[in-house]
Structures are given as C-alpha cells and as structure tokens.
Amino acid sequence: MNPETLKQMLEAYRRGQMELDEVMSYLRDLPYKNLEFARIDNHRQLRQGFPEVIFGQGKTTEQIIAIIESMLQFDGNILVTRTSEAVFDQVRAIITDAEYHPSARMIRIIRQPAPRKHGHVAVVAAGTSDLPVAEEAAMTADTLGNPIDRFYDVGVAGVHRLLSIRDQLIKARVVICVAGMEGALPSVVGGLVGVPVIAVPTSIGYGASFGGLAALLSMLNSCASNVVVVNIDNGFSAGVVAHLINQ
C-alpha cells in the first residue's frame, strides 16, 4: 500500500468518513493477501518504497489477472515481467489502462506516477540481441521515476561506437551495462565513468558462452572497481538497484 493512501484512509476514519470495520478490512490484508496459489506482499511498498512485481513466466493468465486485481486494491502501479502479448490481450480486456511493452516483455499499469528523480540512469547494451534484458531494466527504472538514457549496440567489437558516447555516459548517476558473449563491455564502461556500473550478463552467445555463464564470470572478475553484477538476464534487479542508487 502507498503510504499516502494509508494516511488518507486513517484520516477519513478520524473524521468519521470511514467505519472501523472498513479500516480493519484493509489493515487485515496489509501484510499479505492469501490467494491460495499466491501470497501477495501488500506491505512491500511501505517497506521498500515500491510494490511487489509479478514475475509472469510460469504463471497462467488467470493467476496473473487475479494477482493484478488483488494488488490494485492497495497499489496504483503494477509491473508484470517476462510475459507475452497474448497474456496482455486478456489482461487488457479486464484492466483497460494496462499497457504492453513488447521489447521489455512487460505489462505495466500506472495509476500513481512515481516522482521523477533528478539524476539519469544510462542503459547501455552491447548488441541488439541484448535489448529484451536492457529494456526490462530500462522500463523498471523508468516506472520507479528515473529518467533513462538508452545507448544500444555499442559492444567492444566496435569500441569506437562506445567511445563516441563517452561524454553522455559520464553525465549519468548510474550505468546499467548489458552484454552477452564474453561480457567485456562493463569493464570498459567502468573504466570510462566515475559512477556505479551495474553489469547484467545475458544468455546471448555461441556454445562456449554456456547460456550466459561466461559473461557472468567475466563480469565478476572485472578489474574495474566500480562494477557490480546481477544474475544472468536479470534486467529487473538491475533497474531496481539503479533506482535505489539514484535516490
């Protein structure tokens, strides 16, 4: 639940505009709501500053819709990651203000836009094949109120492309760097900027990349001391951490 919503509800009770039973019905489900197949963490907005996010992969459309409807009783902003346009079509039939972002594979509902931050988050991707993960990171950070600068297809195989945007990169408060193959890009970016670089290994690459493991190990062994690493293909976590740094 948004802290401001809770404050307004308690003020309405104090003024006699809400009955005690109404207030208690909200508070009863505030820690979590048990839907049998899922326990919705309605308390996360108060603890962390942003609501729980729905990981769509592996869930049925019916489960996703039920979770969204439950969350909307407490939270105005909903993200569903790793989902498809087919799922979105069924969601939008019920929740008409839902929007789909195919490049990020995300459903997004925005009813309480987050205050915009002053610092910018730069999202850098090595190749076009890395865009789904890069866009997942960018859309997550954008939803949380961060201005985003995108720089795509600037991998080290053509390092002049990266060097040409250096002046723009150094203006960012934090850089999310997404790469597959050997995962060299974050080390190079880390050597160019004086801000945190969140490295995201992707599962893009030929056989010896081992589904992103080669990129992950390369990033973990980076000699750039400002580079930190999230899990393979985990653009969502990169977007959240970038948001926390940018606060």
What's the topology here?
Layout: H1 3-14, H2 20-28, E1 33-34, E2 39-40, H3 44-48, E3 54-55, H4 61-71, E4 77-81, H5 85-94, E5 99-101, E6 106-110, E7 121-125, H6 131-143, E8 148-152, H7 159-163, H8 166-169, E9 174-179, H9 185-192, E10 197-201, H10 213-220, E11 227-229, H11 235-246
Parallel strand pairs: 3-4, 7-8, 7-9, 9-10, 10-11
Antiparallel strand pairs: 1-2, 4-6, 5-6
Can you describe what's shown?
The chain is of the alpha/beta class and 247 residues long. The protein contains eleven helices and eleven strands. A five-stranded parallel sheet has the order 8-7-9-10-11, sandwiched between helices. The radius of gyration is 20 Å and the shape is elongated.
Features:
4-stranded mixed sheet; 247 residues; alpha/beta
Low-confidence spans? none
Tell me the β content. Answer: 15-25%
| Coarse structural class | alpha/beta
Order of helices and strands: HHEEHEHEHEEEHEHHEHEHEH
Oligomer: single chain
Mean pLDDT: 89
| Computed Rg | 20 Å
Number of strands: 11
What share of the residues lie within helices? 25-40%
| Major β-sheet strand ordering | 8-7-9-10-11
- The count of helical stretches stands at 11
Report the major sheet: 5 strands, parallel
N-to-C span: 20 Å
Global morphology: elongated
Brief overview:
With 247 residues, the chain is α/β, with parallel strands linked by helices. It has helices at residues 3-14, 20-28, 44-48, 61-71, 85-94, 131-143, 159-163, 166-169, 185-192, 213-220, 235-246; strands at residues 33-34, 39-40, 54-55, 77-81, 99-101, 106-110, 121-125, 148-152, 174-179, 197-201, 227-229. The protein has eleven helices and eleven strands.
